[in-house]
């Protein structure tokens, strides 16, 4: 998705952290407060945290789920195991999430530690494997105080053999996590320490299921299979020790549909006679049974599943290159799914919730999901396989600045992603880069993915060419090199991608129509979309866009991806609200709109969401405002009304009403009141500004480090400095400005020094710049990003 540009972008460099949440230690778990939450959040307890078997593609019976309460600590020392822990955290919900029970920010100079005592019975000569679905970003695992292994990369699974480290009875497992998010070199996706617009709250630490598995001394460690529908076989390799044979059987409705025997590690061909082809309309899955044998004795067994399907780019009967599914043209009608949750961030509250997203997207009439810059838990892909949904799988982009070490970390994450997800039939397309976010070596990497997995399409660069409001934002002279498709991003209205020989043409992103639904917003001060519409106008606007898709399809378009199915934090351009409670266009109406491009969706999943109230929010606000005029001053009413005033653009009303509400507040303020004050305060004259100024420590404790200071600096700059530096060539009276901001203490001084430094840098006034830049960096350099600090220091030399 496109990064939105704003004025005074440099101001954000003053922000170090902006993750909301209480910081008090928890001795017993409870979900922390959150602006909105999904219906499944209330079902979560320490006893039932994601209990389903986490790896459906290679299932065994003998396993133990380690999700639940773990001890946690946050320290500044990476070398010493913590002497004491801060409280308990509910695994596998990330540290910053409400469901973790902690909801704290992890700074780049901190380490997150986990500890759990696990009872291990006598292994009986078997091996004991410790599995992690994903830990963001870098971790080291200790068993009984000794290092047992680790992993780098926040999106892929890893396994540690802990057989020799454990003893019968109680054993202590500890995990150390380092996660600098967007301040580090590793892939971080949409996670940033300063969430805004199209970037969201980080998910540090364990965010997928942790489990133990007992296996024989010699065991099956992996499966790798690829269907070939033209030859009626499943090409399969079973990873296991040499000297063993394997027996592989395909089961159709519990009856054997094909069997093959051969050596472990060998490339085998499992015959599948008259295969039932997998598609979104008929997502038929074969069961797969794999046995490891030594002579006539079985050493190990796993169960899996597969789908027989084929994806290619071919010419249709008119000679137009199109995406083909199972040897027939198939329009990929898709939507851009971020995979975020209000209460769990990266982690869905329950398995039912995880499945709901795919069910809802299918019930809307889509047949494709572009999984955007995130790798989901294995069970998400299982549900996509089972329900019938094509998936374009994004690689998680490297840090866009490409700091030292980022390239090999990105390539390693890509390698692990390709291997981990290979067996899922739902995945038909790999997406390498997005809108030049950290792009490098595009041709080499595109060709590497194609060679690694020739069974799928490769979209080498989604949105390499980008249009916004019909203006070209991102030209590229050698676009889509070595890829299977050309891909344009066009906001808001759809357009066709360029025509190149041998490539399908797709619209990788479009739309982004923003519609906010009162009482269903994560951030009530933001209702961002590429364009904004009233609820009543969304259906017709969306229908017109899809009619244009029909025209483009006739002109050669093979697929489209609408932004987006669900609101996410500050983005309110989803077809369903972030809490999954309100669908903005009824499901049946969406299916009717989509039918010309996706007429056969198969079984329609049963999903529940309320239809949006099509009343203009301004009309609702006007009715309530009259109650205020008539004298209603109840605190809860004032709070809601002030938020609605902000949402509908009544700045005068928002200031007046919030002022009345603030007058009723008495210190000490609750965390939710401080969060509200931070949300609705718009300028230095608001009553809320005084509350922020007088409660800096309390706000930083409740909402995260430097939240209050950064809010103050932003408003001071906006009101007291920006008017004098709007012209980059201006020569303002800095002494007069300093006198104005001095009463605001350190935040006033910091933003004054920063504003003056940047202004003189832009003017290239080196003589005036040096002393003020030196003072700024000496006093506040710790809050400046490393790459910006280098630029500031370079101009002093």
TrEMBL record:
All residue ranges annotated as the Glycoside hydrolase family 2 catalytic domain in the record: 352-463
GO-annotated molecular function: hydrolase activity, hydrolyzing O-glycosyl compounds
Keywords linked to the UniProt accession: Glycosidase, Hydrolase
Coiled coil: none
InterPro entries: Beta-gal/glucu_dom_sf (IPR036156), Galactose-bd-like_sf (IPR008979), GH (IPR017853), GH2_Domain-Containing (IPR051913), Glyco_hydro_2_cat (IPR006103), Glyco_hydro_2_N (IPR006104), Ig-like_fold (IPR013783), Ig-like_GH2 (IPR006102)
UniProt xrefs under SUPFAM superfamilies: (Trans)glycosidases, beta-Galactosidase/glucuronidase domain, Galactose-binding domain-like
Protein name per the record: Glycoside hydrolase family 2
Originating species: Chitinophaga solisilvae
């Amino acid at each position: 998705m496109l990064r939105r540009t704003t004025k005074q972008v440099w101001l954000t460099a003053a922000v170090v952290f902006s993750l909301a949440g209480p910081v008090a230690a928890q001795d017993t778990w409870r979900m922390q407060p959150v602006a909105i939450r999904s219906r499944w959040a209330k079902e979560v307890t320490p006893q039932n945290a994601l209990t389903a078997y986490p790896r459906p593609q290679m299932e065994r019976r003998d396993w133990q789920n380690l999700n639940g309460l773990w001890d946690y600590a946050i320290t500044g020392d990476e070398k010493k195991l913590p002497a004491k822990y801060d409280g308990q955290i509910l695994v596998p919900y990330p540290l910053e999430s409400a469901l973790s029970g902690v909801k704290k920010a992890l700074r780049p100079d901190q380490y997150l530690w986990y500890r759990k005592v696990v009872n291990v019975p006598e292994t009986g000569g078997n091996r004991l494997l410790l599995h992690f679905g994903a830990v963001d970003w870098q971790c080291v695992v200790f068993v009984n105080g000794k290092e047992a292994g680790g992993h780098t990369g926040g999106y892929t699974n890893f396994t540690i053999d802990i057989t020799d480290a454990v003893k019968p009875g109680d054993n202590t497992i500890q995990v150390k996590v380092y996660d600098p998010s967007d301040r580090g070199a590793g892939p971080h996706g949409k996670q940033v320490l300063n969430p805004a617009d199209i970037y969201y709250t980080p998910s540090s630490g364990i965010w997928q299921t942790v489990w133990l598995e007992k296996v024989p001394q010699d065991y099956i460690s992996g499966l790798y299979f690829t269907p070939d529908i033209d030859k009626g076989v499943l090409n399969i390799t079973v990873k296991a020790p040499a000297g063993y044979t394997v027996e592989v059987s395909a089961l159709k409705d519990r009856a054997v549909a094909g069997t093959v025997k051969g050596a472990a590690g060998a490339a085998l061909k499992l015959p599948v006679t008259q295969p039932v082809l997998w598609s979104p309309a008929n997502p038929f899955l074969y069961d797969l049974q794999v046995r490891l044998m030594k002579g006539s004795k079985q050493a190990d067994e796993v169960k899996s599943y597969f789908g027989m399907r084929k994806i290619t780019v071919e010419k249709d009967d008119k000679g137009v290159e199109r995406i083909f599914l199972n040897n027939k043209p198939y329009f990929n009608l898709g939507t851009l799914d971020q995979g975020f949750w209000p209460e769990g961030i990266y982690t869905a509250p329950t398995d039912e919730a995880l499945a709901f997203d795919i069910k809802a997207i299918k019930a809307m009439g889509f047949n494709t999901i572009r999984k955007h810059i995130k790798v989901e838990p294995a069970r998400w892909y299982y549900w996509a396989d089972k329900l019938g949904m094509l998936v374009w799988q994004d690689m998680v982009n490297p840090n866009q600045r490409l700091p030292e070490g980022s390239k090999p970390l990105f390539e390693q994450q890509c390698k692990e992603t390709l291997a981990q997800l290979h067996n899922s039939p739902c995945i038909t397309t790999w997406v390498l880069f997005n809108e030049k976010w950290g792009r490098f070596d595009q041709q080499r990497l595109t060709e590497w993915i194609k060679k690694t997995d020739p069974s799928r399409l490769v979209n080498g660069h989604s949105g390499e060419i980008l249009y916004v409001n019909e203006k070209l934002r991102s030209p590229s002279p050698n676009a889509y090199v070595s890829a299977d498709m050309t891909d344009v991003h066009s906001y808001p209205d759809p357009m066709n991608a360029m025509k190149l020989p041998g490539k399908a043409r797709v619209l990788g992103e479009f739309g982004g129509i923003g519609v906010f639904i009162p009482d269903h917003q994560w951030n009530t001060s933001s209702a961002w979309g590429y364009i904004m519409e009233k609820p009543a106008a969304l259906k017709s606007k969306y229908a017109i866009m899809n009619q244009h898709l029909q025209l483009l399809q006739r002109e050669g378009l093979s697929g489209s991806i609408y932004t987006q199915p669900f609101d996410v934090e500050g983005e309110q351009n989803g077809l369903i609200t972030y809490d999954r409670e309100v669908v903005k266009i009824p499901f049946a109406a969406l299916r009717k709109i989509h039918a010309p491009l996706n007429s056969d969706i198969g079984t329609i999943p049963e999903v529940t969401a309320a239809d949006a109230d099509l009343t203009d929010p301004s009309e609702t606000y006007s009715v309530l405002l009259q109650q205020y005029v008539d004298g209603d001053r109840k605190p809860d009413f004032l709070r809601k009304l002030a938020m609605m005033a902000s949402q509908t653009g009544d700045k005068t009303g928002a200031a007046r009403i919030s002022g009345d509400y603030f007058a009723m507040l008495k210190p000490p303020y609750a965390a939710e009141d401080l969060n509200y004050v931070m949300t609705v305060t718009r300028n230095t004259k608001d009553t809320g500004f005084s509350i922020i100024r007088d409660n800096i420590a309390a706000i930083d404790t409740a909402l995260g480090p430097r939240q209050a200071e950064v809010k103050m600096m932003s408003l001071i700059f906006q009101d007291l400095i920006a008017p004098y530096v709007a012209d980059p060539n201006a020569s303002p009276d800095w002494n007069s400005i300093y006198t104005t901001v001095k009463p605001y203490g350190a935040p006033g001084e910091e933003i004054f020094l920063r504003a003056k430094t940047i202004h003189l840098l832009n003017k290239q006034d080196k003589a005036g710049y040096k002393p003020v830049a030196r003072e700024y960096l000496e006093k506040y350099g710790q809050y400046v990003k490393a790459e910006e600090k280098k630029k500031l220091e370079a101009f002093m030399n």
